[in-house]
Amino acid sequence: MRTPRAARHSGAGDAENFSGTFAALGRIAYEGARVSASAVDINSGRTLLAIDDRIVLPTASIGKILLLIEVSARLTSRDFSGYGILDKTARDAVGDSGIWQHLQAPSLPVADLAALVGGTSDNLATNVLLRQVGLAAVRARTESLGLARTALLDLVRDSRGPDDAPQLSVGSTAELSWLFAALARNEIVDPLTSQRVMGWLSLNSDLSMVASAFGLDPLSHRGTDHGTLLVNKTGTDVGVRAEAGALRGTSRAVSYAVSVQFNDDGLPARLRVLEAMRTVGLDLLEYVH
């Protein structure tokens, strides 16, 4: 993971061609955005794409994957039960993404909360799970995985003060693409832990970025659709768009991560970023098929 790697940009006739990705990300970088991208063949481990993949950028909700790994590992080791009931409290309250804040249920099982995080990036469920397992445990688990540039820094807050972490999470795309490849190969902690995390993430309903190119149903894509299978996690904040995932097609499988930090001063700027990320998705789709 720490060996220097050059970006690949193969021409016609080679196994991969990410010319569209380089052009699209280059355009928004020229406009002032900070971009980072990585793609790895899951089966061979070969680096397919590396664009500033070792720089650390804000990744918003993508860091919640690290929480899900810790929760899954504890379920595997029977430190607590997936049926254990957790209550939401006033100090857990937070807005934005998620549906639990709109439900009447005051309590839910641990496994259901993890499913909410995987499916809707539920902020309230995230905070309740973090209160249960502790941010220090998530950090320790992250370090044990060998991740040096990726971290969940804080709980979810409606606003961040001077004493709070400036971002919910940060990460490098090299580490995030490695993480998804390892999850897909059942190598994170143990097979059961990896499979459980991938199951939660397979519920993700946000296909607005890279995954917008895959033609999948945002609300139902846990199975293969036209030979395409996706598991992903996104992160969204003001001036931040990030996505990491694993994509399997009819001939190959790839893990990927893309992060963009930009001046979100208007809808046109945001749409240019989303269109660039969609272009990455088109190149990935072509590779796996």
UniProtKB/TrEMBL annotation:
Transmembrane segments: none annotated. This is Serine hydrolase. InterPro entries: Beta-lactam/transpept-like, Beta-lactam_cat, Beta-lactam_class-A. Keywords: Hydrolase. GO terms for molecular function: hydrolase activity. SUPFAM superfamilies: beta-lactamase/transpeptidase-like. Residues 38-258 form the Beta-lactamase class A catalytic domain. The keyword Disulfide bond does not apply. The keyword Disulfide bond does not apply.
